[in-house]
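Entry for phosphoric acid mono(formamide)ester complex. Fields follow.
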Amino acid sequence: MKKFTCVADLGDLRAAVAEALEIKRDRFAHTELGRNRTLLMLFFNSSLRTRLSTQKAAMNLGMNVMVLDVNQGAWKLETERGVVMDGDRPEHLLEAIPVMGCYCDVIGVRSFARFESKQEDYEERILEQFIRYSGRPVFSMEAATGHPLQSFADLITIEEHKRTERPKVVLTWAPHPKALPQAVPNSFAEWMNAAGYDLVVTHPEGYELDPRFTGGARIEYDQRRAFEGADFVYAKNWAAYRDPNYGRILSQDRSWTVDAAKMALTNDAWFMHCLPVRRNMIVTDEVIEGPRSLVIPEAANREISAQTVLKRLLESL
Ligand code: AN0
Ligand code: CP
């Protein structure tokens, strides 16, 4: 595997999950694979889970790890070609990327949607430049339109907890005070479709996602109806995708918060969220602390998804 940005990069998904579960059984089985190999993790945005779980995964494989927070201590990077650089950004990405590539064997990049231009975000301009100019295998640690390490961990978690071959999985929008990217729901839908689950997406009108990710999923505007018979409820906020509202908040309707009354409509569903989560906006204390909450096992599986991806990238060196 030469890059990891979407579900297709893993090839056979069943084989990838089986490999992940094998790694989970013995995460120190490949400590020689990463010997004298260096991972560079580059963050344009904040992180707790991705930062720690990916570093841990790399250490499990025997790698050395360098972490750079671009906005804290590095030169501010210009990303557009052709601009006269007379502003506050002293370095261009087109030099910075190959330079960083000189110091490492694998690069992970976190670069969220900026919501300045839908085209720029959905072309994944930052991530694609890393793939093109770094000379190294690159993986996404959440880019503008996807968060594949999260979705891979979510898939592993569902495989560990499902009671039927093809569970009903409901992706529900929930309110949030800030405009958040579509990366997590995009990837989640893409991966659930690839896994062949019964996927239902529920959100207020106007929050439709890019159909390239939601594909054949059913869209249901009535959240309660969507929850009926659900085996898994995956909550997430996202800002509007469709024009002319791209990147905007259209609703903060707290009647969409996931609570115990709504969870009671489900088939005793597991509750999932990628974290960080705003309690009593996205989900009530009661549900997230309850016995059907999977948020911690989900976060734990981030180490496993990252290790599976890093193992495959190392094997291709
Ligand atoms: C980010 C998002 O919604 O994409 C990261 C989630 C993993 N969340 C926030 O910025 C709160
Ligand atoms: N879920 C997730 O990616 O969390 P962080 O933003 O803390 O890395």
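NOTE: The chain has a mean pLDDT of 98.
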